[in-house]
Amino acid sequence: MVLDSRQVAHEAYLTLSLPEGSIEVTNPSFARDSLAGTVALTEGGGAQPLMNVRKVTVVGVRGVKAGQSGGLVVIEGNGVKVSFAGAALTVEGETYRVSWPAAAK
């Protein structure tokens, strides 16, 4: 679901591989026309929303391991697998934001 010229909500699943890393998110609670369960939001840095993705936000996820070590951000568990080098991680409750380069927020 395209939200604006740079943001896309991925309600069912998202698999994306970029030079900086990869994102895999599946939503076991998926229901058409609903944002219930685990949802990923990508934000692009250019005219096309899935080109030059600079940020991913995953909401509604519980019981994952998330951390930052040696310049690598990793989030794993319950249908979520995110791994990015040179990224910044922000966690607020069940919301995980990963942005890169690390200086961008």
Extended strand count: 10
Rough shape? globular
Question: For the terminal residues, how far apart are their CA atoms?
Answer: 23 Å
Class derived from helix and strand content: mainly beta
Strand order of the largest sheet: 1-4-5-10-9
Share of residues in strands = over 45%
Number of domains: 1
| pLDDT < 50 runs, ≥5 residues | none
How do the helices and strands follow one another from N- to C-terminus?
EEEEEEEEEE
What summary fits the major beta sheet? 5 strands, antiparallel
Summed over residues and divided by their number, the pLDDT gives a mean of: 82
Binned, the helix content reads under 10%
Number of helices: 0
Radius of gyration: 13 Å
Could you describe the 3D structure shown?
- This protein is mainly beta.
- Helices cover 0% and strands 53% of the residues.
- It has strands at residues 7-10, 13-18, 21-26, 39-44, 53-59, 65-69, 72-77, 80-85, 88-92, 95-99.
- The strands form two sheets. A five-stranded antiparallel beta sheet has the order 1-4-5-10-9, with no helix packed on it. Strands 2-3-8-7-6 form a five-stranded antiparallel beta sheet, with no helix packed on it.
- The chain is globular and about 40 Å long.
- The mean pLDDT is 82.
What is the gist of this entry?
The chain is mainly β and 105 residues long.
